[in-house]
Give the backbone structure.
Amino acid sequence: MKKALLQLLIGPFLLFSSGLALASVSISVGVCNTDNIEEVSGGGFTGSGSCPITYSDGSNTASGTVNISASGFSVSVSGSLTGAFTFFAGSGSLTTTQDGYLFFCSVNNTGGVGSTSLSGSCTANAGGAGGTTSSSGAQQQAQATVVQQINAISNVINARMLANIGGPQPTKRASAESGLAAGNISEKWNGWAALNTNNSSYAPSNTNNKRSADVTNAVFGADYQITPTAVLGLSAAVDRGNGSVGAGSTGISTNGFAIGPYVGMQLGPNMALDLSAGLGRGEVRQTGGIKAKSDRRFAAANLGYVRWSGDLQYSGKLGYLVSTEKYGDISTNGTAAANTSSKSEIGQLNLGAEVAYWMNNGTMPYLGLAYSRDTRLNVTVNDPNWDRDSFTLKLGLNFFSLASKVTGGIAYTEEFGRRNARNATLMGNINFRF
């Protein structure tokens, strides 16, 4: 960073001042004294530095010094120039990028005969466009998109293979009529859909790292019984969201999609395994004409277990997922800035348990608790205050319609255990067997 950061921020001031002087002026930046400007843990900068600058039109020269002072996510620049030029007053604002940071700058040139003063300030937004490759941004964005798709697939597999086995008589009939273990050739197809709305936020003491987002995610899928104990399927998901980042609550919007296959295998009367993978595209837009597009990848494995005791159903799940979002160079109003690409990688371990009660009227309420650990979190800007462990409380209701061969449910989840963070999801799903 150091010299590159300083010259990056000096550049706009030079352009404003020279553009208001003589069109034939050439600009040069000398050897900068920037060794003590450092990027700090959790994002932001500290330190100060300076660079000598010289203007020349071939006959006359103007020289001066531009100083920079950085503290956290705020950067200020000041300087002066003297020489045989007439400088005209001017001011403006601009957005520029450097190493995964977005800089929002305002600049001012006082103007004058033989001298001018330059001043301005910049606010840095860490973690790429929309803060998507910061610790909180990467994790919460994945939680609202690919994690919802993975969970929808896993729930479908468990519902098809295990949910009714060994339960009360009405659920036994559902299993006998449409479960895999029964080998019913008339209902080898299963179509399903899920809709999720996710609200997340992160509000640390350093408000430059704060963010909030509302994301709606729709997942669709279908699978086919290829053996008495296995299914093969395909899922597709689309997502749309909006929110804000940074101390100034800069507006952001997101969209994306992912598509991929999945496999479900019944390992015994009480256990099933689901494997899924997918790829897709994403995009984040930020106020000021800022945009970045991404390639999305994910893979997951989940092992589910179900056991009945009277009208009570006990279930558990152990799973691991990997999600990658690779962003290309950030563009501002259609112009891409080189070397501004970024990438986030998440590896997450999940362990959960649920208890449900059969109501004898085709419905089954349940309560669940899950633990998650971000075992891998590779991001552009790592926030040391972001907690990698969390718990999620889940409350839901499933329903069964044997006559129409339709099952479904609704659920609400709330995450807790991460300081200054909130993540809640309302979801619904429906399944058709044919």
Remarks:
- Residues 15-23, 169-185 have pLDDT under 50 and may be disordered.
- Helices lie at 2-19, 135-144, 146-161, 169-178.
